[in-house]
């Protein structure tokens, strides 16, 4: 490990030692997984990772997250969240992510009231600061801490450290909840989430690594990492993509020639919507 990475890791350990006990909001993605792993190295059984078994979390992601925790001896609690009971979440405007994270942190607080743990940590890193992320507003409202960001760790350093310690999550593709695939204004329903999950799993089975199936009602817009687009453009593969996505319940399938890009649905939000979402209360 080079000196710069070692210093960043020591900064992270310094941040973690500030807390006697900690619960880490955990999803199985590289940020929260690395944070949970390091919290366990520092705090041992005085920490717990908490994952929400939500309809918007793909079943394969839940299974991976549970296995990662088990393989690394990380204490884990699985909680049920009820964001689907919130009208503000279901209507799917620019504040959807706020209401999802607010529900998660509320659920964690209720659970932790029985344990004596008062510190909730989540996986925000240094690179997240400038993004449109209303979930950070929810975290602030619940006084959740962000040790990775506080230690000035960015995504590249997190992946490098995870790789150094042999954590299989190190090169796991970035992912967001299934609800983020739905166009804004389209209500979040269990059926819509099922369609997206089924379509994406089928496309991953075709050998693609980074993709999204964006839900526009009867139309599915498929985003595939630009480096993999050439593979998608053969007539045979296009037929397989179309069949796989239609089998999930879509009538029309289109391949987005811009390829995969994080947060592409945000282009549909007005500036006013963005401002309201960032100041959701």
UniProtKB/TrEMBL annotation:
SUPFAM superfamilies: Adenine nucleotide alpha hydrolases-like (SSF52402). CDD domains: LarE-like (cd01990). GO terms for molecular function: sulfurtransferase activity. It comes from the Bacteria. Signal peptide: none annotated. The active site is at 177 (nucleophile and sulfur donor). Transmembrane segments: none annotated. This is TIGR00268 family protein. It comes from Terriglobus roseus.
């Amino acid at each position: 490990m080079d000196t710069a990475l070692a210093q960043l890791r020591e900064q992270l350990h310094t941040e973690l030692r500030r807390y006697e006990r900690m619960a880490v909001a955990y999803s199985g993605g590289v940020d929260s997984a690395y944070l949970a792993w390091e919290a366990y190295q520092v705090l041992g059984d005085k920490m717990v990772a908490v994952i929400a078994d939500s309809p918007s979390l793909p079943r394969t992601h839940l299974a991976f997250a549970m296995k990662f925790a088990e393989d690394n001896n990380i204490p884990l609690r699985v909680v049920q969240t009820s964001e689907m009971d919130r009208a503000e979440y279901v209507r799917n405007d620019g504040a959807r992510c706020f209401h999802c994270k607010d529900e998660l942190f509320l659920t964690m607080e209720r659970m932790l009231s029985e344990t004596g743990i008062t510190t909730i940590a989540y996986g925000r890193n240094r690179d997240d600061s400038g993004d449109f992320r209303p979930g950070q507003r929810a975290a602030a409202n619940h006084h959740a801490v962000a040790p990775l960001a506080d230690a000035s760790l960015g995504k590249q350093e997190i992946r490098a450290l995870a790789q150094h310690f042999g954590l299989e999550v190190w090169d796991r593709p970035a992912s967001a909840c299934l609800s983020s695939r739905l166009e804004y204004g389209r209500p979040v329903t269990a059926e819509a989430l099922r369609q997206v999950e089924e379509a994406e799993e089928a496309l991953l089975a075709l050998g693609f690594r980074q993709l999204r199936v964006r839900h526009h009602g009867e139309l599915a817009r498929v985003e595939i990492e630009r480096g993999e687009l050439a593979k998608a453009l053969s007539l045979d593969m296009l037929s397989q993509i179309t069949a796989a996505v239609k089998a999930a319940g879509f009538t029309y399938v289109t391949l987005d020639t811009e390829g995969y890009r994080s947060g592409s649905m945000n282009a549909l939000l007005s500036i006013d919507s963005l401002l309201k979402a960032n100041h959701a209360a």
